[in-house]
Every structure is written in C-alpha cells, then in structure tokens.
Specification:
- With about 475 residues, the protein is mainly α.
- It has 3 domains: about 250 residues, no CATH class; about 90 residues, no CATH class; about 120 residues, no CATH class.
- The protein is built from 19 helices and no strands.
- The radius of gyration is 24 Å and the shape is globular.
- About 0% of the residues have low confidence.
Length: about 475
C-alpha cells in the first residue's frame, strides 16, 4: 500500500511540476511577445495560420451578435475548423474582443489563460493515457514514457504557443488511451469515434486515422467486428456530416475537407518540381499555371470569369479572386487535379523530393516556438518566414541533428525490444508513425512531425528502460 502511495505521489508530482513549467514558459512568452511587430499591425504570437483562426473566430462572434445561428456562422472552411471555434468559446467566456474593429489588429491581453487551459488539457490527457497503459509495461517504462510526454522540449514548447499542436496532441493521447484500455465497453468505442472526429476537426491530417485504427482493432485484437465498426464509425460520420451540413446551410455546398487541402501540396511542393523540370523560375511557372487556370475557368466556370482574374500572380491568388464560394471550391478541385497531373508526370522527381522532405521532417526542432516569436519581433510582416534562411537557423542544425540522433537511437533500441515483447503495440505505434510520414512527410516541415512523438514515446520508454537495466547490470557486476 505504501509503494502504491509513493507511485501515485510521484506521478502527480511530475504532472504538476511539468504543468507549472509549461505555465511559466507561457507567462514569459506572453509578457515578452504579446505585442506587435514593427509594422504596428502584425501580432508576434498570432500571425499566418494562427491569425487566421483568431480572425475567423472574431467574424463568427460578430455574426452571433447579428443573431446568426452558431451552427451556420462562419465563412469558407479553408483551414482546420475546430481551433477557431475553441477561440470563439474562449472569447465569449472571458468576454473580450479578439480584433480591433477599426484597425483589424489582434487586441493585446487575454492570452495567458488560453495557454494555461491548453496546458492543463494536455496534462490531463497524459494522465488518462498513463492510467491506461498499466498492463502493457512495467512501472519504470511507464515512468520514462511519462517523463518524455511531460518534459520533452519539442512537445512542451507548443503548449506556450497558439499553433494547433497542443490540442491535437491531447486528442491523440485520449485516443491512444482508449485504444490501449484493457476492457472496452460500447461507450468507450463511441467516445473513441467522437475523438477521431475531433482529431480531424483540429487538424485535417487526422481524417484517415480512423481507418488505421479500425484496421488495428479488426486484425490485431479480439474485439467484435460489428462493435468496432458501428460504435466508432457512427459518431465519427456524424461529426463529419455536421461539418458538411454546416457548409451546405451556409454556402449551399456540402463539403467536409477544408479547401486548403486542395492546394497545399501544389503550393508548397509540386510547383517546385515543375519549375525544376521545366528549368524555369517560380514566377514563370506561375504565369504558365495562371494561363492554364484561366483557360479552365473559361471552359468550365464562365460565370466566375471577370476582368480582375488575370491580374493575379499565383494560381492560389486566382482561386481566391473568385467571389462565389461554390465556384471557388470547383476551382480548388481543379488545382487538386492539376497537382496530381504534375506529380504523375514526374514520378522520379516526386519521389526524390519526398525523400528529401521526409529527412527534414524527421529532425526534431525544440527551438521552433521561441524563434518563431524572437526572430520576428523586430521585423515587418513582409519577411515572415525568412528565419529558415537565416544564419541562426543554420547554426542550430548541428544541435538539432545531435539531439534527434540521441532520441532516435533510444527509440530504435525500444522498437527492437518491444517488437519481441509486444507485437500488437509495436504495430499500432509503427502504423501511426507511418501514417504521418505518408501524409505529411513530403512537406518537410518539422512542426508537422510533432504528432509522431506521441507514438515514439512508447519506444523511447522501452529503450531507455533497457539501457538503464544494462548500465545497472554492468555496475553491479563490476562492483
């Protein structure tokens, strides 16, 4: 009884200690970076995608004040729909205005409570996950997994930022915990299906994970097939259908995938392949692609054409110049088709660039959030993103590579050990990691790699336990 009490104390002490560290980092960031860049408009902590979530939240609140139904309120779902709704609820609870209606600036203040809440939510998810892996590993492995999830710097930094990672990681951990739960009732599968729906709403990449999980249950567990399919898919499909009907009622078009999913790969990956194969710079490629896009509009969407469209400098700009949302979506679908045409025309270059992207993708970056704030604080908004081409970025690469090799060496040992001890868990973690490599590895952006760390934590815990055991054995034998 005394041993159990000590273990409980240790678990909660570590969680509370980690939460306090996370809150301290958040407090420091907010005190220093809840401010504007030199342009006097762009908020240091809320820019690019994060600004879009908060700006859309402000639009939704404005619509609610005009008595528009919460279910219908909103604009084109061009990116993850859940983050902006979380901000809406947060803003309404604290009763503060997100945007200055005159200048369109993000208002200062009211940032820290949001970061505290997402940290608290994350560590509750860690606790839930920890409580459901008791039968799968010994106490020391559980402790090492807990340490990794609580304090690994690549993970913990996101609880102090407004990127979508923190809530996404929390939902992952709740899903992982329910998946590994020793005895699952029908209600557990219903909750699991709901969480899988929320996973997609928080980050678009989560949409297909449900099929990986169902595959795992059907092939590697003794769960009844009907129970798995019915109780997971019903809430999952319901959540996706609600999003589709929201778009239908709002814009007269039933669609589920955010529109950015139709052009993101073309924008960040495929155009570079085309430029290299055509031996042209990006501006020339943009002109060629705009001409193709205008030809497609003239043939398929003549009602969308106007004299302004040909003034755009990129195909995405051309798409956004189409005023009607239903027509924009048709053009986004054209961009998706055009993307696959280019990739299929140049399969070798696509593979080569994908492998390069996956290599970059895998290098851990514990410095990202700090320099995302620090580097941009004294710069105007027009050079956002240049940190990746800076001397400081290059200077940090050797440290990141060393840290990554250290972590993944332990992970590799853990993988080999767990493969012999628990094939089911090894398959679940490996499939989950491969899922993110397949869907996002081509991009090469290290921030998108972070969700895999939830599954790597299992291998890390097993690997570190093995190393500690060997070191201890060596010490005792030479004592």
């Amino acid at each position: 009884m005394q041993v159990i009490f000590k273990q409980l104390n240790y678990k909660y002490f570590l969680l509370i200690f980690s939460l306090l560290i996370s809150i301290s980092i958040s407090s420091y960031f907010v005190s220093k970076y809840d401010a504007y860049q030199l342009d006097g408009l762009t908020h240091i902590m809320l820019k690019e995608e994060t600004f879009a979530h908060w700006f859309q939240a402000a639009n939704i609140i404005q619509q609610l004040k005009q008595d528009i139904n919460f279910f219908v309120a909103g604009n084109e779902v061009f990116t993850k729909p859940l983050p902006q709704r979380i901000v809406v609820v947060y803003s309404l609870i604290l009763n503060f205005d997100i945007i200055n209606s005159v200048t369109n600036q993000i208002n200062l203040g009211f940032k820290l409570p949001f970061l505290i809440f997402q940290s608290l939510f994350y560590y509750l998810s860690v606790l839930f996950f920890y409580n459901n892996i008791g039968n799968l590993c010994n106490q020391r492995i559980k402790t090492f997994i807990l340490l990794f999830l609580c304090l690994e710097p690549t993970i913990i930094q996101y609880h102090s930022s407004f990127w979508s990672e923190s809530f996404y990681l929390s939902i992952q951990l709740f899903i992982f915990g329910f998946t590994l739960k020793s005895e699952k009732k029908n209600l557990d599968f219903l909750v699991l299906g709901s969480l899988l729906g929320l996973l997609f709403l928080q980050r678009t990449v989560g949409i297909f994970y449900v099929f990986f999980l169902i595959f795992y249950f059907l092939v590697f567990t003794n769960e009844k097939k009907f129970k798995v399919l019915f109780f997971i898919l019903i809430p999952y499909i319901t959540i996706l259908s609600l999003l589709g009907f929201h778009n239908y009622l709002r814009a007269d078009r039933f669609y589920i995938m955010p529109t950015e999913s139709s052009y993101s790969q073309y924008r960040y990956f495929t155009k570079d392949i085309l430029a290299k194969k055509k031996n042209k710079d990006i501006s020339e490629i943009n002109k060629m692609e705009i001409k193709k896009g205008l030809d497609w509009i003239n043939l398929n969407l003549p009602e969308a054409n106007n004299f302004e469209l040909d003034k755009n400098e990129t195909l995405l700009g051309l798409a956004r110049s189409i005023n009607k949302e239903t027509l924009r979506i048709d053009f986004y679908n054209y961009m998706k088709t055009r993307n696959f045409e280019i990739l299929s025309d140049y399969p070798f270059e696509t593979l080569k660039k994908s492998i390069k992207g996956m290599t970059h993708f895998s290098v851990l970056n514990p410095f990202f959030v700090y320099y995302d704030f620090e580097y941009f604080k004294n710069y105007s908004s027009h050079i956002i993103g240049d940190f990746y081409f800076s001397d400081k970025h290059k200077e940090l690469i050797p440290y990141r590579i060393f840290y990554s090799l250290l972590i993944f060496s332990i992970v590799l040992i853990g993988f080999l050990k767990l493969f012999k001890q628990n094939l089911k868990l090894t398959v679940l973690c490996t499939l989950s990691i491969l899922y993110y490599y397949i869907l996002l590895g081509w991009y090469g952006k290290t921030r998108l790699f972070v969700p895999t760390l939830i599954y790597f934590s299992i291998f890390f815990g097993v690997g570190l336990d093995y190393l500690v055991s060997r070191i201890r054995l060596f010490y005792l034998s030479n004592k």
